[in-house]
From TrEMBL, chains A, B:
Enzyme Commission numbers on file: 2.6.1.52
Annotated metabolic or biological route of this protein: Amino-acid biosynthesis; L-serine biosynthesis; L-serine from 3-phospho-D-glycerate: step 2/3
Pfam family membership, one: Aminotran_5
Name of the featured protein: phosphoserine transaminase
GO MF term (any one): pyridoxal phosphate binding
Residue ranges constituting the Aminotransferase class V domain according to the UniProt record: 9-93, 159-399
């Protein structure tokens, strides 16, 4: 069977749908970019055409998210998983250089807020990379869990008084939106479930994995962050490029830190300073992913009324779907995974269909209606509808109707 | 001014031109992959469609290059530059595990053959990553230069007796084709300029950076290599994916090696075993780069008569261009950078136009004829024509004619 795009509602958790006008333009650019007679993947990444693409993307991203001037915007490779390592490596190098004259340099703590699978993985990577360079030697760092919702199976968020930050951590780390169970820190910083910026000791850098909520709404307290990163494949563009927003004073020469000792070796490609010094062109970048991202940014800015328009649309989508789900739950037909409204993700909505064989029935009926990729993550099962920017309110309403009628 | 594709001859050093039929198919796949109603960048990387794409790409690559079964084929991210670090990290971990019971584990030598800018950078990265974990402690490795053509400004290759390999190196490293000056190890393993496989001490792993000659012809003595890697953006596909071909016994758990001590920390994404265990899907891969690479591989196999057909076409292109250049050099009009025929690259042909202002004239005249990206690398200047697989013999003949007439 063959389908047209408009017959399909794609609720994928990522790679996610992309706006139709963007894809049409990208298909054209693939063969002939802007009348050059050369496709966008065949242009020199150091030529004036690509320079305009990447600089335009950065300028539009800065505008959309109001990124302050004292932050660098990097286009890196390797996805969020690579950043699990890179943030650790760069921030330990920074810490070491801050203590360059300290003869008794002690491994710092690094504080993780663990609210799901992705922040767990980031924490585990910090543990791996902390392994001492020789048995009995000092570890490179002491990873700590500053708060976790593991006892609640990651279906809620910690409240402000449940955080236990160490006073002199090299950094505090959290994941803004966990895609698997669908918990997201609320945008309202007054909510009891908001990330407690004010409790983080002054001067301790805050790192946020924004992969799955990036560009879905404004970033609360962006200026309170040290590093914000996001893989492109949710709201920005095709997988292959990862945005790293990093405060410029944290861009340090990791080789200098390595010479002081007490920090792990940093692969040159993982050094943020190298990327920044070379305007993200230290080596050949993922040009197509950056090109499509540039088109998406332009589209968000000009066709979607910027970040306010996007946030409004996403709020409406979430409201429509959660209302249908809450109603169905009240009728005993299903179970919404995240109970606490302030902890619910607007990007990944998870629920479980009650009754033997009913989930399969739900998925098959959905499939026949053109709904795709509604199956929950293989680690938890159930249903997951991801409502990234390119998912329309009409698609969400169609799903809500289906839920009501099921 | 606006150009059609057929008005342009793109001699880019990479990202390089891609075959027209591949781009047409990719443009279609971008909007609707195989009638799914979903574009290829919007498919789940764990779904059956993408599984077929990546597995098909691997199968075709194995067929084209006759990759033995005892090698894994990995689709990684980060380009060749990331591999400068990754090969060092993985092979040091391997070495450490081979000496797991050695109480006096000594840092091994690592031997580099330095024949240009890329192998220089790889060597420098080994030097960086060898920095001891504390001042006065043992370094992680002792990088050596086993041979170099730096005194000849990288315009030739070493002869067999100019190599000085250490007997127990953790590995020997070379770059098969250096793009900046255009030197390439000859395919004829009997040539005095061939890479001297037989001089490498038995058991020492051999690593080759094949980025810029990958898929341009068969790989001589592939079974003698431990690791062969290549960024896609020359003969395979768009930048963003890097192929790593690694002998399966070298896939080791780097965390175990780190626990033994004496090796640098290995970011999880750099561990070849992790990528292999997860069939290159440990995290979201660069799906579009892999998709286009899959289309290119299919095209090379079915429309270009496989690797023999490609090698023949590239030999003919090189012959046509070098003949024109040698003739022009004999007439005193220009200077070919690489004199020794056996050391000349078939992928990157470099020359210098003699006479004040003549180079600018040459480039401008070429531009008017539709020749693009002929300017040499900014570090050396001059002219560079790159003749990757998608550059046609007709384009090369047009350039050769222009050189003769200039």
């Amino acid at each position: 069977m063959s389908f047209a795009r408009d017959q399909i509602h794609n609720f994928a958790a990522g790679p996610s749908p992309l706006p139709q006008p963007v894809l049409e333009k990208a298909a054209q650019g693939l063969l002939n970019y802007d009348g050059t007679g050369i496709g966008v993947c065949e242009l020199s990444h150091r030529g004036k055409e690509f320079k305009a693409i990447i600089e335009g993307a950065e300028a539009n991203l800065r505008k959309l998210l109001e990124i302050p001037d004292n932050y660098a915007v990097l286009f890196s490779q390797g996805g969020g998983t690579t950043q699990f390592s890179s943030v650790f490596l760069n921030l330990l190098a920074y810490r070491r250089l801050q203590h360059a004259n300290d003869a008794d340099y002690a491994p710092p703590t690094v504080d993780y807020v663990v609210t799901g699978s992705w922040s767990s993985k980031a924490y585990q990577e910090a543990v791996r990379l902390s392994i001492p360079p020789a048995p009995g030697a000092k570890p490179f760092a002491e990873p700590r869990i500053a708060a976790t919702t593991k006892p609640a199976k990651f279906t809620t968020l910690p409240k402000a008084d449940e955080y236990d930050f160490s006073p002199e951590a090299a950094y505090v780390y959290y994941c803004e939106n966990e895609t698997i169970n669908g918990v997201e820190f609320p945008a309202d910083t007054q909510s009891p479930y908001a990330f407690p910026f004010d409790r983080v000791p002054e001067g301790v850098p805050i790192v946020a994995d924004y992969s799955s909520s990036f560009l879905s709404r404004p970033i609360p307290k962006i200026e309170r962050h040290a590093i914000i990163y996001a893989g492109a494949q949710k709201n920005l563009g095709p997988p292959g490029v990862t945005i790293v927003i990093v405060r410029k004073d944290l861009l340090v020469d990791t080789t200098e830190a390595m010479k002081l000792g007490g920090v792990p070796a940093v692969p040159i490609q993982s050094e943020f300073k190298t990327l920044a010094d070379n305007k993200s062109l230290y080596n050949t970048p993922p040009v197509f992913s950056i090109y499509v991202s540039a088109l998406v940014l332009e589209y968000l800015l000009n066709e979607r009324n910027g970040i306010a328009g996007i946030a409004e649309a996403n709020a409406a989508k979430g409201e429509a779907l959660y209302a249908a789900l809450d109603e169905a739950e009240a009728n005993g037909k299903l179970r919404v995974v995240v109970k606490e409204k302030d902890a619910r993700s607007l990007m990944n909505v998870t629920f479980v269909i009650e009754g033997e064989g009913r989930e399969k029935e739900f998925l098959e009926g959905g499939e026949a209606r053109g709904f795709r990729q509604l199956k929950g993550h293989r680690s938890v099962g159930g249903i997951r509808a991801s409502l990234y920017n390119a998912v329309t309110l009409d698609s969400v309403k169609a799903l809500a109707e289906y839920i009501k009628s099921f």
